[in-house]
Amino acid sequence: MKSKAPSILSADMVLTGSISSEGEVQLDGAVDGDVRAGSLIIGEEASVKGEVTAETVVIRGRVTGSVRARQVQLASTARIEGDIVHASLSVESGAFFDGHCRHASDPLSEKSSPANDARNRAAPPPMSTSGGMGQAKPAASAATSPGSSSGGASSLESIAGKTAN
User: Fold this and answer.
1) Rounded CA gap, 158 and 82, in Å?
2) What is the pLDDT of residue 57?
3) How far apart are CA 52 and CA 36, in angstroms?
4) Among the four 19, 63, 81, 119, which has the fewest Cβ within 10 Å?
5) How much is the pLDDT for 111?
6) What is the pLDDT of residue 82?
């Protein structure tokens, strides 16, 4: 039976290990381990070092590791260093993202396998980092369009800022 009240990890808590919940989890502290939840909110001061898996996830803080969710929302204060696999993705201007981003119709049922990893290397994802320089590089179709991002911080802010102006 799902709880109606969310499970909350307060700002002064540091957890080493994995969290698993079918309900809603709100993280305001630090987690060094994987987090699996039905619904997950990562607060502005929160940090996760590990894999994040959820039906829906709102990220306002820092994630170092992969994110896998049906619905992903990156707030302007989000800092992601890792890959995102999603069915739906929304990004606010100012969000920092350094990694690969890939759409999947069912991201929770997909498992990483050597075959998937090889396929992902053969076909570049929509967003990738370039040669260790820390710069976000739009997909080939976006790179040839006027106003595409060329250089700067490894941030979706530079791309989102160009489209907002």
Assistant:
1) 18
2) 98
3) 6
4) 119
5) 64
6) 97
Confirm if 104 and 126 have CB atoms less than 8 A apart.
no
pLDDT computed for residue 3 by the predictor: 53
Low pLDDT (below 50) residues in the chain: 1, 113-165
Annotate 87-119 with b (16+ C-beta within 10 A) or e (fewer): eebebeeebbbbbbbbeeeebeeeeeeeeeeee
Cβ atoms of 42 and 28 closer than 8 Å: no
Is 0.90 surpassed by the pTM of this model?
Answer: no
Given this model, what pLDDT does residue 141 score? 38
Q: Is-contact 41 26, C-beta < 8 A?
A: yes
Q: With left for phi above 0 and alpha for psi between -120 and 50, is residue 143 left, alpha or beta?
A: alpha
Strand partners, 94: none
Structure tokens at 113: 């396998």
C-alpha closest to that of 129 among 76, 82, 61? 82
Asked if 53 and 71 count as a contact pair (C-beta separation under 8 A), the reply is: no
Q: Could you tell me where the DSSP H helices lie in the chain?
A: 114-122, 140-143, 156-164
Please give the structure tokens belonging to residue 84.
Answer: 């995102």
